[in-house]
Write a structure and sequence with these properties.
heterodimer; A: alpha/beta; 2-enoyl-CoA Hydratase, Chain A, domain 1; seven-stranded mixed sheet; 10 strands; about 15% strand; B: alpha/beta; eight-stranded mixed sheet; 12 helices
Chain lengths: ~290, ~270
């Protein structure tokens, strides 16, 4: 109960931070003198330092996942955050056993209606629509609600003639929504195609992990594709591939750096440089999207 | 055959004697000219495609190919395409648009191949680009799920203005084995997975994912292929006639897939979060 309360408090504070632009608050909230081990190198790093470093390990550079609101707070100019449809969710369309309870528990735990947070805001003064997949919610898996949220973000960007930035982080399709989940690949791909046909800019940012149906739809359709260091990016998961070919995968297979080498991303960008990189990309496309204002 | 379980239909859908794309092309079309290769890297025989006449009218036909005997199975990787197959499909679809002919696709794959080279060459990108091409394709596309509709590897050919499905075909987000393995960490519970996945033609019709269910001969398509070809011929003729009246096939397709799952959307209550 206590942890739930403190999580809610944190989230509310984060929202307040986003609305009022007091970026420093985020750090103060989590400034309990507690250490957390880096999942990459095992080094103990203080929570304060994690927050200050945007959850990148100061010792080994490991990029920990960022929740939707936290990610937006690192990118959007203070005071410009306007959330899009925060409560969009989906029913248990397949009557899948146990799924209702699971959804309810996830909503309570994360304070999210589903796995995507979307917002309108400004980055370095330039307006944009940004959608972020939150891997805390059922591993960021894509069901009807997540697919619809991405599609609506793309439609909003197209109608408002704004660039779209999507942060992908997903274990793939939402198994409990079965075929409806698969259909979200078609839905999101068509929304991105419409945006693209209208001359809109779409930047895909691939973060750990980007796999399955998300990789095989909107994650792979960016005009510009960025990736965070060390992110796992692929269609089939490493375990499935190992089972199929009957051997161990080489070190670094499907990492962001591997995808860069194989021609599927434009740049691997450390989190500390991400905002600056996005600013530059938006600036470079400000006139290029002429059909787009 | 309304009394079959989902698991029994999965078995029928996978029956090695079940007619496939090559059989449909031989039985329903004339003057088939096969187009091979993705123009980038190689030819992937697990996707078969080309131009043919359907009742005298040129159409582009594309489908998964599993192969008839072991040698062919191996050559076709048991119907599991590599990125090259999907890139060939994109090439053929774009050619169909250029020459203004409808596209007919036959879906029968366990899924896109989850191998090392397939990943290295961008399996995800290849499927995503198929979806993007179909989203903008300005000729009618009729998809028929004829056997196994396995995951993204099936959807990559299946964004039809009309999606038909054979009675004993299955179509799902993942194979029942993979589903059980992901959700329960136990692939031996595949039969149980079949029961909850809603993967039969009747289930999918109810969910609005497919437009109609085509009946199969008693005992399954392999028992009387000729009867199945007659059913398919009539269904394709009707679907093409209907699709021919659509003024903007791309917009029609986009509207159709944008609505998938729409009726299950809700607003989460404030108290839930």
């Amino acid at each position: 109960m206590d942890t739930r309360f403190s999580q809610r408090k944190q989230r509310l504070l984060r929202l307040k931070v986003l609305r009022e632009g007091q970026a420093a608050e985020v750090q103060r909230v989590s400034a309990q003198a507690v250490f957390e081990k880096c999942p990459g190198c095992g080094e103990a790093v203080s929570k304060t330092q994690w927050a200050r470093e945007l959850y990148v390990c100061p010792k080994c550079g490991y990029h920990r996942p960022l929740g939707g609101y936290l990610r937006l707070s690192t990118l959007l100019d203070p005071g410009t955050f306007r959330e899009l449809e925060p409560r969009l969710a989906a029913k248990n369309g397949l009557d899948f056993p146990g799924y209702d309870d699971k959804l309810a528990a996830q909503r309570r735990r994360t304070g999210l209606a589903d796995a995507v947070v979307a917002a309108k805001g400004r980055i370095c003064g330039m307006p944009a629509v940004v959608a972020v997949m939150d891997s805390r919610f059922l591993m960021g898996s894509m069901g009807v609600a997540a697919g619809e949220k991405i599609a609506r973000a793309a439609h909003t960007a197209r109608r408002a003639k704004l660039p779209l930035i999507v942060f992908c982080a997903s274990g793939g399709a939402r198994m409990q929504e079965g075929i409806l989940s698969l259909m979200q690949m078609a839905k999101t791909a068509e929304a991105i195609t419409e945006l693209r046909d209208a001359g809109g800019l779409y930047v895909a940012c691939l973060t750990h992990p980007t796999t399955g149906g998300v990789t095989a739809s909107f994650a792979s359709l960016g005009d510009i594709t960025l990736a965070e260091p060390g992110a796992l990016i692929g269609f089939a998961g490493p375990r499935v591939i190992e089972q199929t070919i009957g051997e161990k995968l080489p070190e670094g297979f499907q990492s962001a750096e591997y995808q860069l080498e194989h021609g599927f991303v434009d740049a691997v960008v450390p989190r500390a440089e991400l905002k600056e990189t996005l600013c530059r990309i938006l600036k470079l496309h400000a006139k290029g999207g002429a059909a787009h204002g | 055959m309304a009394d079959l379980t989902a698991a029994q239909r999965v078995a029928l859908a996978r029956n090695p004697k079940r007619p496939g794309t090559a059989d449909f092309i031989a039985a329903l079309f004339t003057d088939f000219f096969e187009q091979r290769g993705d123009r980038l890297c190689r030819e992937d025989p697990s996707i078969l495609g080309g131009v043919a006449l359907f009742h005298g009218v040129p159409v582009t036909v594309i489908g998964h190919r599993k192969g008839r005997d072991l040698q062919e199975n191996l050559r076709c990787n048991f119907g599991m395409p590599s990125p090259e197959g999907y890139r060939k499909a994109q090439r053929l679809m774009k050619a169909a648009e250029k020459f203004g002919r409808p596209v007919i696709t036959f879906i029968d794959t366990p899924g896109a191949y989850p191998g090392l080279e397939a990943e290295a060459r961008g399996q995800g990108e290849a499927i995503a680009s198929c979806l993007a091409v179909m989203s903008g394709l300005n000729v009618p596309l009729i998809a028929v799920v004829t056997g196994e509709g396995g995951s993204g590897g099936a959807l990559a050919l299946a964004m039809g203005n009309t999606v038909l499905m054979l009675e004993n075909a299955v179509y799902s987000v993942l194979s029942p084995e993979g589903f059980a393995s992901i959700l329960w960490k136990d692939s031996s519970r595949a039969e149980e997975a079949c029961g909850v996945m809603k993967l039969t033609a009747a289930d999918l019709f109810g969910l609005g994912v497919i437009d109609s269910v085509l009946p199969e001969p008693e005992g399954g398509a392999q028992e009387d292929p000729a009867a199945l070809y007659e059913t398919l011929d009539a269904a394709l003729t009707a679907a093409l006639r209907k699709a021919g009246r659509i003024a903007d096939p791309a917009a029609h397709r986009r509207r159709k897939f944008a609505a998938m799952g729409e009726r299950f959307l809700i607003e989460a209550g404030k108290e839930e979060l």
